[in-house]
Structures are given as structure tokens and as C-alpha cells.
Amino acid sequence: MNANLEQTLIRELRPVAAPRALWDRVELGQAAKRDRSGIYLSWALVGLAAALMVATVLNFRGQPLISAKTYSPQFRSSDAVEIRGWVRANTGLDVPLHQGAVQLIGASVKGESAEVVCKVGDRPVRLVIAKAQTAPFDGSRHHVLRSNWFRGGRVLSWIMSGQFYTLACLTPGDLRAACTLCHGG
Amino acid sequence: MVLTGQDRGLIEACQRGEYDAFRALFEAYQDRVYSIALRYSGDPAAAMDIAQDTFLKLLSSIREFRAESSFESWLYRIVVNRCLDQQRKGRRIAQFFEELLDVATAPDESVLNKILRDETAGDVQRIVAQLPPEQRIVVILRYTEGLGYEEIARILNCSAGTVASRLNRAHKVLEQKLAHLRGVQA
Question: Which of A161, A183, B41, B138 is deepest in the core (most CB within 10 A)?
Fold first, then answer.
């Protein structure tokens, strides 16, 4: 092979430094595994949870996962207490919202599911909540089911305290900021 | 590679479940793992997923590692398998053809030259990302990690001749595409 090509490949494919966030990701993955370790996790329940996740997200589809329509909630408010009350009144779901490091925009409901929308900077974040049917996941800890890219957004799904959560945003940094929705700023 | 006494101690501590040892092992190998994942996938988010999966797999199966074998080869095998799994999931985002079209339809020679000058690592990365997985992983192990044919063969569980053949095929494709875009010619 020609030497120029070899030099180009060596130069352009050189090693790079891993992002500092990688360790956080590894720790998050370990925590998720530990959470699951004490639970009898049958394939039927996993299937049910996955089906619920898809159904929950798709209930609010009709547009890309993150889109301008995200900014048009049925109930518009920037107050965490107001949104929490509205969601509870319309679905029975209790979402422990805080003001956090995000800008709340409002909420929508569809059937027994709710969606809270907010912004991190000028980027939208969606949190979809539904009642979890999977009793073994009860408890106050996060049982992470899925974290990946889906239809153009970063999606994290978990079950906690009998409720199913799916958080969608555009960047990993937004995901971290969105945690303050429930965990405060 | 022969393990140093320090590495061997770290691995043994990991096998005993010592968390600090895992952190130290992570620190020692994170750049290599992430580099392979990034160069293979061409996508930082996918690379993070691959690297995360690799270290979680390392942690869960470190007890299966036998000290008489090469730890690096063992780790490389994990990350390579994760890369190939990622490929199967079809999560790679390739924009190469769109950008190639932009270059091909650039209005005049000066604009074309400017585009070619301005483009750097992205071109090579995207063209490498178009290679078939079995050729791409050989290219990455060869040029990102600087491994020899025998070591690559051990990691991929194939013969050195197969490695040479895949690399040769990859070189031909890369030579053709990079010559067209960047003037990489003999």
C-alpha cells in the first residue's frame, strides 16, 4: 500500500481521550444492574415493560420525538406545584416535580399517561409518565430499563414507585439537567 | 503483552471485587476502549454506549479472565464484540454520501478546493465507517491501536492471513475513496 495512505490513516484514526462522563455512565450502568439484582425479572415482565414503554412513548407521537409541537402542552405553566397538581387531578399520577435547572413549560395527558414538557436552554425535554403494571419493580429506587438513542433523541426509561418514566432529550448534558426535574437543582 | 506486576495486582483485586481496583483499571484503559469505539462507530454517542457496555462486561466477567493469557487481548475482544453488536443494531449514523454529493456538486474549482482543504479527520472517519464491519475493525485495530497482524488475528479469532486479506481489501477501497477526496496518492 502507499505510504501516504498509511500516514493518513495513522494520523486521522489516532487514539483520543475518553470523555470524563464515561465513568459516570459506567457507574450508572452498575447501579442499574445492582438495582435489578435482587429482583426476580421474568422475561414476561421485561416484555410487558418494554411494550408499555413503546406504547407510552407512541401515545404521544405523531411528530418526531423532540419537535416544535412539544411546546404546545394542554396545560401551560412554569410552576412545578401547579403542574404536579394538574397531572394528579387528570391521571392520578403523582410526579414529584421540582423547579430544578430546567424551565417548565406545561403538561399534557392522554388516557392514563401524562407528559411534562420543559426546556434546558433552548432545547426541549419530554418526560412521559404512566402507571407501571410490573409489581416487582415497586420501590423508591430507579430501575433503569433502557438508555439509548431513539427517533433522534436521547431516551432513558425507568420504573420507580410504581410509575413508568420515559425521559427524552437531545443531548446527554440535557439528560443530566433533566434529572433536576424531580431531584431539585 | 505480558502483564506488569502492577496490572496483574489490579486485575486480581478486581477479581476479588475491589471497586477501587476496577476504577484504576478503567482509568488505565478507558482511552483505548473509547478510541476503538469512536473510530469504529464514527459517532461519539454510540462510542459512549460501546465503551460503557465494554466496561460493564469487563466488570461482570473479570473472574473468567485467566492470568496466563493477555489481558489486553481479552479486553480488545470485549470491545470488538461490542462494536460488532452495535453495528448489528444499526445505530450508526452515516452522512458520507450526502457530503460526497455536496463536494461533487460544488459550483466551481475554488469552492471545491476550499471544501477539501477544510475537511480533516471527518472525511477519513466517514469513509472508514463505510467499510464492511470485518474490514473496518481490522483497520481500527491496526491504525488506532497499532497492533500487528498476529495480535489482531488472536483478538478476532481468525488467521493472520485473513487479517492481511481484509486489510488489503480495505486499503484498496480507502485508497480509491481518499484519493478522490483528498489526493492521497502514491
Answer: B138
Lookup result for grid cell 444499526: B90
SS3 A111: coil
pLDDT at A158: 75
Mutate to test the interface with B, among A1, A9, A28 (most CBs of B within 10 A): A9
- How many whole angstroms separate alpha carbon B35 and alpha carbon A17? 7
How many CB atoms neighbour CB B155 within 10 A?
Answer: 25
Domain B5-89 carries which CATH code? 1.10.1740.10
Nearest residue to A32 via CA among A169, A158, A132: A158
Greatest CA separation found in chain B?
A: 64
In chain A, residues with a C-beta closer than 8 Å to the C-beta of B45 are: 149, 154, 172
Residue A10 counted as domain residue: no
The answer to whether the CB of A98 falls within 8 A of the CB of A180 is yes
**Architecture label for domain B96-182:** Orthogonal Bundle (1.10)
- Please check the confidence at residue B2 and state whether its pLDDT lies above 50: no
Nearest CB to A9; choose among B30, B56, B143 = B143
Number of structural domains found in chain A = 1
Segments forming the whole domain that contains residue A82 = 21-183
Kindly determine whether residue A2 and residue B31, on different chains, have CB atoms separated by under 8 Å: no
Q: In this complex, which of A5, A26, A33 lies closest to B184 when CB atoms are compared? A: A5
In tens, the pLDDT along B25-51 reads 999 999 999 999 999 988 888 898 899
- In chain B, % helix, strand, coil (3-state, to 5) comes to 75, 0, 25
Q: What percent of chain B has pLDDT over 70?
A: 74
CATH number of A156's domain: 3.40.1000
Model's pTM, two decimal places? 0.54
The answer to whether ipTM exceeds 0.85 is no
